[in-house]
Amino acid sequence: MANKKINQLVTKSAIGTSDLFMIGDASTGQLYKKTIADLQATLSGTISGSGSTGYITKFSGTTAIANSVMYETASKIGLNTLTPGYALDVVGTIRASVDVLISSDARIKENINPIDNSLEKTCALKGVYYTRTDLEDKSRKVGFIAQEVAEILPEVVSLDHEGNYGVNYGNITALLVEAIKELKKEIDILKTK
Predict the structure, then answer these.
(1) Residues 167/150, Cβ–Cβ less than 8 Å
(2) How many CA atoms lie within 13 A of 74 on its CB side?
(3) DSSP category for residue 133
(4) 193 residues of the chain, pLDDT tens digit each
(5) Could you tell me the CA-to-CA distances from 70 to 12, 13, 31, 89, 152 in Å, in that order?
(6) What is the pTM of this model?
(7) Structural domain spans, the chain
(8) How far is residue 95 from each of residues 98, 99, 100, measured CA to CA in Å?
């Protein structure tokens, strides 16, 4: 990998007394583990720049480093936030080009029971249009009010480390599936009359 340009710093973590960097090779797309000494030997000049404690470093030029928008504290990573409350805490829109998977294996579950009164609960939910007061983006959104959802389906509502309520929209799907099945039963009964 001698004398190849490195186009992206992926991550940095402390290993013993030296920092270990994951870097991407622009020509091959491969990742390599390198220390600062390795990086300096690979590049045609020395690496310079400065950073702040907690920030994950990035290349700001061919041989310069600076702070990125990623911040690490207590084994938690924040993107655009200095106070991550989760393993990965992102302030902003997240886009996935493929799938986002959530563990759902039967072997890691117990006390499994069907959702009761799913149609009634679904009908009690109130979808709303809204705009956010905490973001510059003032486009109209659609969703639920977490405090209202908590009264109907508390299992999908959580409180974060800053005292704000959130809704796990993905888990509402199970309620909707059961509600459709209840509705189908009612339709089938009406068809037989």
Answers:
(1) no
(2) 7
(3) S
(4) 444 444 444 445 444 445 555 556 656 656 565 666 665 565 556 677 778 888 888 888 877 888 888 889 998 999 999 989 899 999 888 898 998 888 999 999 999 999 999 999 999 999 999 999 988 889 999 999 999 999 999 999 999 988 999 999 999 999 999 999 999 999 999 999 8
(5) 11, 13, 19, 10, 36
(6) 0.66
(7) 6-90, 113-192
(8) 9, 10, 10
